[in-house]
Amino acid sequence: MTQSIHHRATLHNGVTMPWLGLGVFKVEEGQELVHAIHSAVRHGYRSIDTAAIYGNEASVGQGIREALTENDLSREQLFITSKVWTADMGYEETLAAYEASLAKLGLDYLDLYLIHWPVAGKINDTWRAMEKLYRDERVKAIGVSNFQVHHLEALMANADIKPVVNQVEFHPLLTQAELRAFAKSHGIQIEAWSPLMQGMLLDHPVLRDIADMHGKSVAQIILRWDMQHGVVTIPKSTKADRIADNAAVFDFELSVEAMRRIDALNENRRVGPDPDHFNF
């Protein structure tokens, strides 16, 4: 049982990653984002997830630097993720995109760098660049995002290094059972984006019932369900009370029956794009 916000998952290359992190999708550059990172680190978060396409790496970097000073932490105590965007995929392009992200963030390295989406025809060259970054010790770990089983199979058929993480849409209406089983069999850590389905699940009657039984919020129930499935999760919020609420998931455990009830909600329903049908 994951009992503390400081507990970490061990990735297959030996790097450790916090089970709970802060996502910053659709949060614009500016003080709101900087303050959200301050609040998250103050409440024990040690993982921040951004991406080049979010257009907010500069504010993320500012927030990180200020939070490190404010909390007397070293850079090594945080786990920072960014992602290469579809337009920047390719060998030389990915190497340049990585340096651009570091420059915007004001960091010397990332803990995790991901291919954001599986663009046909560009995956292998992009992954070769990621492997170079890893071998050159420019990044601690490399992985992918939004990859289905067949994308992972194709990548691994040509790769020297296996992805350590696959960050995908995962929530009670999209439980990704086949993908999770495949990832587990290959030692790839699943990480959830949009774990709360962009807020669409917060009034779900089954989740509300389970939440009431535990004296917890629906968001806390969903995040606990993630962790008990061995899924790293990065809920997004800029509000200090929500950030604190999302972190209060380590003092209870869902029963086998509650886990089954939530699993049974699956509808294979996405709130984001389908990795097999996207046009960006």
UniProtKB/TrEMBL annotation:
Pfam families: Aldo_ket_red. Belongs to the aldo/keto reductase family. The active site is at 54 (proton donor). GO terms for molecular function: oxidoreductase activity. Substrate binds at residue 116. PROSITE patterns: ALDOKETO_REDUCTASE_1, ALDOKETO_REDUCTASE_2. The record marks 83 as: Lowers pKa of active site Tyr. Keywords: Oxidoreductase. It comes from the Bacteria. Residues 31-267 form the NADP-dependent oxidoreductase domain. This is Diketogulonate reductase-like aldo/keto reductase.
